Design the sequence.
């Protein structure tokens, strides 16, 4: 096995990282947890001139609240995110997704931003981030740009990120209290498995009436997708069996899955529907609990 | 919705080399002048507990010597005889009987020399853990073997054991006596099947085994638990997918062996002693059979839970879902009540 890289660089600031990326003319690779990058380099049996470790960059290691926004640094690991009070209180489906991701050892290394940049259609944290309408903050040679996560993802492993650019943060508006959310995953075993399907649902209520709905489906299209028809259908409705079934059926319409070693296209389309029904059912049961803060 | 079901399956598996292949083991044991026993057997302990078995059965053959005084010399074909390969669930039966015989032979030497030293009948000498006793006389093992050496009695003995002959099988797999020994097992599995997704959780397994007399109960339980977990992997997750003859599964990231979360909360091994058809010890192989009945026990439990038969392994969620759909047992509706506040 050849050496995977010639230089391992640990910049201390974003500017230093950008300088390095520019110096290597886009041939350097960014490493955070490395749980996808190392495997890919080994699989491709290639050697890169440099990897740039973003783990030591000032300001990328924390989850903070800024002007009503949750800001997650690019070096925040999945394990660190699991311990975040703000995520547990306001984005529980993201916490559920992280818990369903890989294993404790991998979560200790892997970062949320890495899961996003890896752009797997099956990436577990992407559906909840899409329902949070997360934006990706990117620094490049010509300054800072920002993009909605949905637009950032182009296809399997493909994003709008240029080789000389660096994702520094993910951010999303702090969800107002009064919402409920759920993440569902179907895998071939109970841990350490890539999703056959995953789904995230986020709903806002006025009493029993849905005032806003966001649904994202993983592993059923080249990127994680929103199920907008189902979302529209849920608006102003109350969740009963018929509504939940109809929303599930509509969600299937947002999918265009493929056959692969983990499942057939037909099964995946059906399971997208099943997971949405399941998440909606879970949310409705939660909503009816007297202890829910939004309960009237 | 989830449905529970229970299934069981029984299996028998031939142990030892069979189909007309002779199965023989040769071992040597050497007594030392400092009162220890060295086993020479060029076999490999591949994690199944061969060393413990050899020491326990030699201790038994020696008439009750502590296994702590017994050591297995690093196996090497340069200094040790050939007990045959570690495989075919044969070691406890074939090598175990051989080592026990070697123990018996050395025990006779010890007792004979001790009786002569004390001046009593051989029948009066008893073996007690780390010494020999005749009435009030106590003899250290080292002294007995030093005396034996002075008398020119060899302290390194060789013993062999040959399993019952078997006959070859014809092109239809038939023969007069193709296998000389079977182990038996029945596994009972309780499962929970998700009727929307086809996911299967194995909740509990009771595994009843007849492998004759169990030599090392703790290790035997571990063997059964491990075998059940391996069989569970074959049943539910492990698959080598080929495309045009090329494996699409190239690593353990896609060849899915069960994790601790996939293992049942409870695997309960139980042993019944049905004896053994030959040999002096009443032992039969346990090794491989723990992987066998669990597969059909789980798929029978899936059938019991859902009415669906899965006939291709592994029973992945999709295969179970398709089998359920074929018999109209997939649930596709929300379980939420139609009315508002339940």
Sequence:
């Amino acid at each position: 096995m050849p050496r995977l890289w010639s230089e391992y660089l640990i910049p201390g600031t974003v500017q230093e990282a950008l300088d390095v990326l520019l110096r290597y003319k886009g041939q350097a690779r960014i490493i955070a947890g490395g749980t996808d990058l190392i495997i890919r380099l080994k699989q491709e049996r290639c050697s890169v001139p440099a990897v740039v470790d973003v783990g030591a960059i000032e300001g990328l290691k924390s989850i903070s609240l800024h002007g009503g926004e949750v800001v997650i640094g690019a070096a925040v690991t999945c394990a660190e995110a699991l311990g975040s009070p703000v995520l547990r209180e306001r984005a529980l489906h993201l916490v559920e997704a992280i818990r369903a991701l890989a294993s404790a050892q991998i979560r200790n290394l892997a970062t949320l931003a890495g899961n996003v940049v890896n752009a797997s259609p099956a990436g577990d944290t992407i559906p909840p981030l899409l329902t949070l309408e997360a934006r990706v903050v990117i620094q490049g040679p010509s300054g800072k740009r920002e993009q909605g996560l949905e637009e950032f993802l182009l296809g399997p492993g493909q994003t709008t990120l240029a080789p000389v650019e660096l994702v520094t943060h993910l951010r999303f508006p702090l969800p107002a209290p009064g919402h409920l959310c759920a993440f569902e995953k179907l895998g071939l075993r109970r841990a350490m498995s890539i999703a056959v399907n995953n789904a995230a649902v986020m709903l806002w209520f006025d009493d029993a009436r849905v005032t806003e709905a966001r649904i994202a489906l993983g592993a059923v299209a080249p990127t994680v997708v929103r199920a907008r028809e189902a979302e529209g259908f849920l608006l102003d409705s109350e969740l009963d069996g018929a509504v939940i079934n109809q929303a599930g059926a509509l969600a299937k319409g947002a999918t265009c899955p493929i056959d692969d070693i983990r499942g057939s296209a037909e099964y995946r389309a059906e399971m997208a529907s099943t997971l949405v029904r399941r998440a909606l059912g879970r949310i409705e049961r939660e909503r009816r609990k007297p202890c829910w803060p939004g309960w009237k | 919705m989830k449905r529970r079901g229970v299934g069981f399956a029984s299996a028998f598996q031939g142990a030892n080399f069979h189909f007309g292949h002779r199965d023989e083991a040769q071992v040597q044991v050497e007594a030392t002048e400092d009162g220890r026993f060295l086993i020479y057997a060029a076999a490999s302990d591949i994690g199944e507990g061969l060393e413990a078995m050899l020491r326990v059965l030699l201790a038994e053959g020696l008439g009750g010597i502590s296994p702590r005084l017994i050591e297995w010399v690093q196996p090497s074909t340069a200094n040790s005889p050939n007990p045959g390969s570690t495989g075919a669930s044969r070691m406890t039966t074939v090598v175990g009987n051989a080592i026990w015989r070697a123990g018996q032979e050395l025990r006779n030497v010890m007792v004979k020399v001790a009786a002569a030293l004390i001046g009593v009948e051989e029948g009066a000498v008893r073996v007690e853990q780390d010494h020999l006793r005749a009435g009030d006389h106590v003899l250290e093992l080292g002294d007995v073997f030093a005396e034996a050496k002075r008398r020119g009695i060899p302290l390194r003995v060789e013993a062999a054991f040959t399993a019952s002959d078997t006959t070859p099988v014809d092109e239809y797999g038939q023969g007069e006596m193709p296998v000389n020994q079977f182990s038996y097992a029945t596994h009972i599995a309780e499962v929970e099947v998700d009727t929307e997704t086809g996911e299967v959780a194995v909740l509990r397994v009771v595994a009843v085994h007849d492998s004759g007399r169990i030599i090392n109960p703790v290790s035997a339980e571990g063997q059964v638990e491990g075998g059940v977990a391996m069989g569970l992997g074959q049943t539910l997750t492990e698959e080598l997918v080929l495309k045009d003859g090329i494996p699409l599964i190239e690593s353990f990231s896609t060849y899915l062996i069960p994790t601790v979360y996939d293992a049942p909360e409870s695997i309960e091994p139980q042993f019944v002693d049905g004896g053994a058809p030959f040999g002096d010890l009443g032992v039969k192989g346990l090794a491989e059979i723990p992987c066998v009945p669990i597969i059909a026990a789980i798929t029978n439990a899936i059938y019991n839970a859902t009415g669906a038969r899965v006939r291709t392994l592994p029973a992945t969620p999709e295969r179970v879902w398709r089998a359920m759909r074929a018999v109209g047992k997939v649930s596709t509706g929300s379980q939420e009540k139609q009315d508002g506040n339940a």
About this structure: Chain B has a mean pLDDT of 95. The helical segments of chain B are 50-61, 91-118, 141-150, 217-236, 293-306, 317-326. Chain B has two domains: 2-14+181-326, 24-162.
